[in-house]
Amino acid sequence: MNKIRLFLTTMVAIFLLGACSQLPTSDKKDFVDYVNPYIGNISHLLVPTFPTIQLPNSMLRVYPERSDYTSERINGLPIIVTNHRERSAFNLTPYQGEELKPVRSYTYDNEILTPYSYEAEIDDNNMAVKYAVSHQSAIYHIEFRQADKPVYVMVNSRIGKIHADSKGISGYQQLSHNTRVFLYIEPEQVPVQTGILVDGKVTEDQTEAQGRNACAVWRFADGTQQVNLRYGISFISEEQAKNNLYREQSDYNLAALASKGRDIWNKTLSKIAVKGGSEDDKTILYSSYYRTFERPICMSEDGRYFSAFDGQVHEDNGVPFYTDDWIWDTYRAAHPLRLLIEQKKEEDIIDSYLRMAEQMGNMWMPTFPEVTGDSRRMNSNHAVVTVADAMAKGLNVDIAKAYKACQKGIEEKTLAPWSAAPAGWLDQFYREHGYIPALQPGEKETDPNVHSWEKRQPIAVTLGTAYDQWCLHLLAKALGKTEEADYYLKCAHNYRNVYRAETGFFHPKDKDGKWIEPFDYRFSGGMGAREFYGENNGWVYRWDVPHNVADLVNLMGGKEQFVANLDRTFTEPLGNSKFSFYAQLPDHTGNVGQFSMANEPSLHIPYLYNYAGQPWKTQKRIRQMLKTWFRNDLMGIPGDEDGGGMTSFVVFSSLGFYPVTPGSPSYNIGSPLFTNAKITLSNGKIFEIEAINASEENKYIQSATLNGQEWNKPWFSHDDIKNGAKLTLVMGNQPNKKWGSADDAVPPSID
Fold first, then answer.
1. CATH assignment, 272-745
2. Is pTM beyond 0.85 here?
3. What is the CATH number of domain 42-266?
């Protein structure tokens, strides 16, 4: 009997094995299937990460218009997002009933959202919606389920102009400054009534409206069960919007468009291929990677583009024009990631910066280029870092023109945060004394360039400008401008002027050289610590010298004290209730001690142990941060993601390396999540990272080889990998405290 049972068990096992080996390939996940756009849709405190539907770096972006995932209503159907996470234009409102409004707020259910498509049921009006997107056009299919009610589709411009006839609705919405976004939309089904919505009624004798909530209406035959719409958008003209539509769409085939979008995303995401790790690890990786393609966006339309930087339409001469790039957030990791994988796009983006500088008339490099122009947000002028990094890694960039634009942007524009004013006395003071002076408590602001809310941010600006000037040094040196190169190298050490040896922190001082007292590195500085720092407190800015970590080690008294200070950053209590702490420092979330995982100035900090002979602690911290703060759930991003600014950190760190110092052709080694990762570089070569035995427990590097040669450094150069390479790491569950610890193994610094 036992033999019979054994035989039957064996046969069943063989059958099941065979069945499993013959699973259809459709059951295998593609790269895009790992993308979860809902990660981070509920914020920890500030702005959530919206679920964006878009092709990579394309002009047309949408997401359901709601405050966050918990919102029970959406505000009409989206047409275009004109600014990452901030502004939408137009509203599309399908409706059955007699109470006509320019925009209706819908309850919804059964929402399915991918990077390239959207569908949902509008349950309070008994409709179903499907959507697919292209680069500058899209298709809607709307199903109407109430046979006894009239069928309407309304197109609303929030402030602008709208035209309507039975063949199409077109118009524009006025954005800020000199910018308009244009729309052309047409139906597959022929409407029985066309007009303008006035006081809740369709006026057929009126075909045009202008002003707030200018709204065009189509009514379709009673009993219509489906209306298919296709539309194009443009920043040039209504006619160009129509051209964009017809160039991209020949029919109303939504399924085909979604399939094409899926293919585009798969091809894009396939440049990173991983094995090992958990399914959640892969979801977080590819969702983060998808986020890096949300910005900047390509504005070129049939070889032309509108530039808000001079209000003109230009020929692009074969070089696409990109904007909507919040450089303060993206220079640290998003630009270096794109540089590795899509070099030509990065070259075009930097070229776009230079065109912006020319078009603005002052030749100042932009800092926060948006669709509507350069908003000059945040502090410092970090576009120069993207140029220096591109040059250091061999990209084709006009260094002479870039140097001029970057130099003028730093020297001629004020260093005061959030200002586009010419340089003033603060800037002259910085040139003469090498730091931005702080105000003493109760001292009134006298510089008109200083923003009333953003304040001077003297430490943040001093440290950030020192880094920018180091990058200017690199450009000047490459151009043979020896005297200027030497000058900017000296300026690159200006952080020393605000380092207070007694405390080991960067400490503000006034115009007379007196330290600001009394002082608390956690809470001094008012809202967002802006009177002295910027969004983050003194504990975060203690480490904001990415170009010269070796000197920071020396300033702190050597490696032992440097590591002790790092350790304390991750263990120092908030010092107040969470309510009080975050009321003052709302950007300083994702805390581990005083470390803030939720804001970009912190991204490099866990890697700094590599500079002090203890890379095993970097490995431990990186795994801790990834596991704690980046998860496959609705709150899985700890702060403002900023279109790739933060998620590019996740991509790099999950793969096992990170660019601590853009401008230097070097990468710090961390602790990879995956047993194998293959990165297809811009030249088609493969950089492979094999992490033998890597797992949740096995996070420590035991030994390493690079291209088969023993490797005992916690970093490698761009030259080491640019033509393809293989980094092999043997991982274990206990730290090998000797690996990468030698004095001559530390990553490069300028000193």
1. 1.50.10
2. yes
3. 2.70.98.10
